[in-house]
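Re: beginner question about structure tokens

> Can someone show what the tokenized structure looks like for a real chain? I only ever see the sequence side.

Sure, here's an example I had lying around. Input first:
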Amino acid sequence: MKKTILLLAVLWSLLPAQSLDGKKVFETYCWGCHHQSAVAFGPSFTQIASKRTFEEIEAYILDPKAMYKAFGHQRSVMPKLDLNDNERACIARYILSFKKDH
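And the corresponding structure tokens:
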């Protein structure tokens, strides 16, 4: 029995980790206030991508109340989202995919 459990544990560890999809993270956490290219309650991803770097997007997601003044906003109604590092990176990359190249 112990050998079977050990074998299953080893096989499980060899399976590739489920990769996150930025669009899926967006649909789960962001869609209520942001849309990809249209202004909703918050700015569109196209607008955000045209002004922000990957690091700035991650910082704002991590702690919007600490970052809103640095971004020139009078206030922030964005909630602090409980996302892990991978989820933040996925959504930041997804947002930046809407940047229009000039």
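Each token stands for a local structural state, so reading them left to right follows the chain. Helices lie at 2-14, 22-29, 45-51, 54-62, 64-67, 85-96.
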